[in-house]
Amino acid sequence: xxxxxxxxxxxxxxxxxxxxxxxxxxxxxxxxxxxxxxxxxxxxxxxxxxxxxxxxxxxxxxxxxxxxxxxxxxxxxxxxxxxxxxxxxxxxxxxxxxxxxxxxxxxxxxxxxxxxxxxxxxxxxxxxxxxxxxxxxxxxxxxxxxxxxxxxxxxxxxxxxxxxxxxxxxxxxxxxxxxxxxxxxxxxxxxxxxxxxxxxxxxxxxxxxxxxxxxxxxxxxxxxxxxxxxxxxxxxxxxxxxxxxxxxxxxxxxxxxxxxxxxxxxxxxxxxxxxxxxxxxxxxxxxxxxx
Length: 291
Prior knowledge:
Blueprint: E1 3-4, E2 11-12, H1 19-28, H2 38-48, E3 59-60, E4 66-75, E5 78-86, E6 90-94, E7 99-102, E8 112-120, H3 128-143, E9 150-155, E10 162-167, E11 171-172, H4 173-180, H5 186-205, E12 218-221, E13 226-229, H6 254-257, H7 264-280
Parallel strand pairs: 3-9
Antiparallel strand pairs: 1-2, 4-5, 5-8, 6-7, 8-10, 9-10, 11-12, 12-13
Helix pairs in contact: 2-3, 5-7
GO molecular function, one term: protein serine/threonine kinase activity
Organism: Rhizophagus irregularis
Protein name: Kinase-like protein
């Protein structure tokens, strides 16, 4: 049963905070920030108005709040960086002061959060397709712990490219299996498969298709000993239609290769390939050429 908030008299979900009070707080702050892009602003504001938890709030993050930015790798249509976010994201709601509180630890001021920056290349003039994908990712990250947590968006001032600011996980599933497969029990392997299937269930429930599920896009976190799906919506070029074939070939369903397009079922095929990899500790078709 839902409780009645003492402040706004709305029926809210949680006992320690009220999602309606949080949304009103964020709404009152709309005029105090801007990305300089109306579409980005509206995207973030819409996500904030759907906020369910204080630690799942999407923000516009000024680039100068990010320090020690280092290039990590490149994948697909994006470049990946590591960075330190000064102050970090919101963590809890103070019912007494009716304010959101950022991450705090006793004796530490301006706590630094280690984050991943995902720079989306060639989207300075981002089209509506890109914004629909961004909305899908941010909205689901906003609601579900099964999806890799995304804190918000920033912009690289040197080239104008937008960057997703995401939680830093420890490694991808491929690397995790390489390091730990011989020690994993079947119970642990089934748990990994269950977490991935559960994550995909939430994606499909939002009427979305991942289209690029593979062990490099499943991230493992020591913090909660869990696996989370990443790269939702940004796994392929923003300007390519859904019928275009891109991704990691061993995980792509045969009907997609036959140019019949991506469907919910093609994601299920990718899950089957992941289950093979979790079972045997090796990527599917690893002894075959993929060109």
